[in-house]
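User:
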Amino acid sequence: MAEAVLFYLFAIGVLVAGAQVIFRRNPIYGALSLVGCFFFLSGIYVLLGAHLIAILQILVYAGAVMVLFVFVIMLLNLKEAELGEKRLTVWKGLGLAAVVLAVGVIAWKALGPAYPQGVLMQGARRVDNAVLIAGFGGAKAVGRTLYLASILPFEVTSLLLLVAVVAAVVVAKGRI
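Assistant: Predicted structure:
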Protein backbone atom coordinates (compact mmCIF):
# COMPACT_ATOMS: atom_id res chain seq x y z
CA MET A 1 0.00 0.00 0.00
CA ALA A 2 2.81 2.42 0.88
CA GLU A 3 4.52 1.67 -2.42
CA ALA A 4 1.37 2.50 -4.34
CA VAL A 5 0.98 5.82 -2.49
CA LEU A 6 4.64 6.69 -3.13
CA PHE A 7 4.31 5.72 -6.78
CA TYR A 8 1.33 7.98 -7.30
CA LEU A 9 3.06 10.84 -5.47
CA PHE A 10 6.13 10.43 -7.67
CA ALA A 11 3.99 10.11 -10.81
CA ILE A 12 2.08 13.29 -9.98
CA GLY A 13 5.42 15.01 -9.29
CA VAL A 14 6.73 13.91 -12.70
CA LEU A 15 3.61 15.20 -14.43
CA VAL A 16 3.57 18.55 -12.60
CA ALA A 17 7.31 19.14 -13.13
CA GLY A 18 7.01 18.07 -16.77
CA ALA A 19 4.13 20.49 -17.28
CA GLN A 20 6.23 23.26 -15.71
CA VAL A 21 8.95 22.55 -18.28
CA ILE A 22 6.42 23.28 -21.01
CA PHE A 23 4.67 26.26 -19.44
CA ARG A 24 7.59 28.24 -17.98
CA ARG A 25 8.59 31.25 -20.06
CA ASN A 26 12.04 31.59 -18.58
CA PRO A 27 14.31 28.78 -19.85
CA ILE A 28 16.23 28.58 -16.56
CA TYR A 29 13.00 27.89 -14.65
CA GLY A 30 12.10 25.28 -17.26
CA ALA A 31 15.49 23.60 -16.83
CA LEU A 32 15.10 23.57 -13.04
CA SER A 33 11.64 22.03 -13.44
CA LEU A 34 13.23 19.35 -15.61
CA VAL A 35 15.69 18.61 -12.80
CA GLY A 36 12.73 18.15 -10.45
CA CYS A 37 11.14 15.81 -12.99
CA PHE A 38 14.35 13.75 -13.09
CA PHE A 39 14.37 13.44 -9.29
CA PHE A 40 10.76 12.25 -9.19
CA LEU A 41 11.52 9.78 -11.98
CA SER A 42 14.47 8.41 -10.05
CA GLY A 43 12.10 7.83 -7.12
CA ILE A 44 9.95 5.68 -9.40
CA TYR A 45 13.06 3.72 -10.40
CA VAL A 46 13.84 3.11 -6.73
CA LEU A 47 10.31 1.75 -6.23
CA LEU A 48 10.92 -0.61 -9.16
CA GLY A 49 14.09 -1.91 -7.52
CA ALA A 50 16.34 -0.40 -10.19
CA HIS A 51 18.72 1.37 -7.83
CA LEU A 52 21.53 1.72 -10.38
CA ILE A 53 19.25 3.36 -12.91
CA ALA A 54 17.94 5.70 -10.19
CA ILE A 55 21.48 6.76 -9.24
CA LEU A 56 22.44 7.19 -12.91
CA GLN A 57 19.29 9.25 -13.46
CA ILE A 58 20.40 11.68 -10.75
CA LEU A 59 24.10 11.73 -11.58
CA VAL A 60 23.94 11.78 -15.36
CA TYR A 61 20.71 13.55 -16.21
CA ALA A 62 19.97 15.77 -13.22
CA GLY A 63 23.68 16.44 -12.74
CA ALA A 64 25.78 16.45 -15.88
CA VAL A 65 23.26 16.93 -18.68
CA MET A 66 21.31 19.64 -16.87
CA VAL A 67 24.52 21.49 -16.01
CA LEU A 68 25.27 21.40 -19.73
CA PHE A 69 21.78 22.70 -20.57
CA VAL A 70 21.97 25.49 -18.00
CA PHE A 71 25.44 26.42 -19.29
CA VAL A 72 24.11 26.69 -22.84
CA ILE A 73 21.06 28.69 -21.71
CA MET A 74 23.24 31.10 -19.74
CA LEU A 75 25.67 31.33 -22.65
CA LEU A 76 22.82 32.50 -24.88
CA ASN A 77 22.01 35.23 -22.30
CA LEU A 78 18.38 35.75 -23.33
CA LYS A 79 16.88 39.07 -22.26
CA GLU A 80 13.30 39.45 -21.06
CA ALA A 81 12.34 41.22 -24.30
CA GLU A 82 13.72 38.34 -26.39
CA LEU A 83 11.48 35.83 -24.64
CA GLY A 84 8.43 37.51 -26.16
CA GLU A 85 5.05 38.20 -24.64
CA LYS A 86 3.06 35.63 -22.73
CA ARG A 87 0.61 33.86 -24.97
CA LEU A 88 -1.14 30.54 -25.22
CA THR A 89 0.16 28.67 -28.25
CA VAL A 90 -0.97 25.46 -29.91
CA TRP A 91 2.07 23.66 -28.51
CA LYS A 92 1.21 24.68 -24.96
CA GLY A 93 -2.34 23.49 -25.53
CA LEU A 94 -1.04 20.15 -26.81
CA GLY A 95 1.24 19.89 -23.78
CA LEU A 96 -1.68 20.55 -21.45
CA ALA A 97 -3.75 17.94 -23.29
CA ALA A 98 -0.91 15.41 -22.92
CA VAL A 99 -0.66 16.11 -19.18
CA VAL A 100 -4.43 15.76 -18.75
CA LEU A 101 -4.35 12.52 -20.74
CA ALA A 102 -1.49 11.15 -18.62
CA VAL A 103 -3.32 12.06 -15.39
CA GLY A 104 -6.43 10.36 -16.75
CA VAL A 105 -4.53 7.18 -17.60
CA ILE A 106 -2.92 7.10 -14.15
CA ALA A 107 -6.31 7.63 -12.47
CA TRP A 108 -7.88 4.93 -14.63
CA LYS A 109 -5.10 2.47 -13.74
CA ALA A 110 -5.35 3.40 -10.06
CA LEU A 111 -9.10 2.79 -9.97
CA GLY A 112 -8.99 -0.25 -12.27
CA PRO A 113 -8.67 -3.91 -11.29
CA ALA A 114 -5.98 -4.58 -8.68
CA TYR A 115 -3.58 -7.46 -9.07
CA PRO A 116 -1.66 -9.11 -6.22
CA GLN A 117 1.78 -7.67 -5.37
CA GLY A 118 4.51 -9.01 -7.66
CA VAL A 119 2.23 -10.08 -10.51
CA LEU A 120 2.19 -8.66 -14.02
CA MET A 121 -0.38 -9.42 -16.66
CA GLN A 122 0.47 -10.31 -20.25
CA GLY A 123 -2.88 -10.47 -21.96
CA ALA A 124 -4.98 -12.84 -19.87
CA ARG A 125 -1.89 -14.63 -18.49
CA ARG A 126 -0.36 -13.82 -15.09
CA VAL A 127 3.44 -13.57 -14.99
CA ASP A 128 5.58 -13.25 -11.88
CA ASN A 129 7.77 -10.10 -11.80
CA ALA A 130 10.89 -12.02 -10.79
CA VAL A 131 10.61 -14.33 -13.81
CA LEU A 132 9.84 -11.54 -16.26
CA ILE A 133 12.49 -9.00 -15.25
CA ALA A 134 15.35 -10.92 -13.65
CA GLY A 135 18.27 -8.58 -13.07
CA PHE A 136 16.30 -5.46 -13.98
CA GLY A 137 18.14 -2.29 -13.00
CA GLY A 138 21.38 -4.00 -12.06
CA ALA A 139 24.78 -3.01 -13.43
CA LYS A 140 25.10 -6.13 -15.58
CA ALA A 141 21.66 -5.75 -17.20
CA VAL A 142 22.11 -2.02 -17.81
CA GLY A 143 25.61 -2.49 -19.27
CA ARG A 144 24.47 -5.32 -21.53
CA THR A 145 21.54 -3.29 -22.83
CA LEU A 146 23.53 -0.09 -23.24
CA TYR A 147 26.62 -1.48 -24.93
CA LEU A 148 25.20 -4.41 -26.87
CA ALA A 149 21.63 -3.62 -27.83
CA SER A 150 21.70 0.20 -27.80
CA ILE A 151 25.18 1.28 -28.84
CA LEU A 152 24.04 3.22 -31.91
CA PRO A 153 21.41 5.36 -30.09
CA PHE A 154 23.94 5.93 -27.29
CA GLU A 155 26.55 7.28 -29.70
CA VAL A 156 24.03 9.31 -31.72
CA THR A 157 22.82 10.97 -28.52
CA SER A 158 26.37 11.94 -27.57
CA LEU A 159 26.94 13.43 -31.02
CA LEU A 160 23.66 15.38 -30.84
CA LEU A 161 24.65 16.86 -27.49
CA LEU A 162 28.04 17.85 -28.92
CA VAL A 163 26.40 19.51 -31.93
CA ALA A 164 23.96 21.38 -29.64
CA VAL A 165 26.79 22.78 -27.52
CA VAL A 166 28.83 23.85 -30.57
CA ALA A 167 25.74 25.50 -32.08
CA ALA A 168 25.05 27.39 -28.85
CA VAL A 169 28.64 28.64 -28.73
CA VAL A 170 28.41 29.81 -32.35
CA VAL A 171 25.11 31.62 -31.68
CA ALA A 172 26.49 33.22 -28.51
CA LYS A 173 29.70 34.25 -30.28
CA GLY A 174 27.66 36.21 -32.80
CA ARG A 175 26.13 38.22 -29.96
CA ILE A 176 29.36 38.97 -28.09
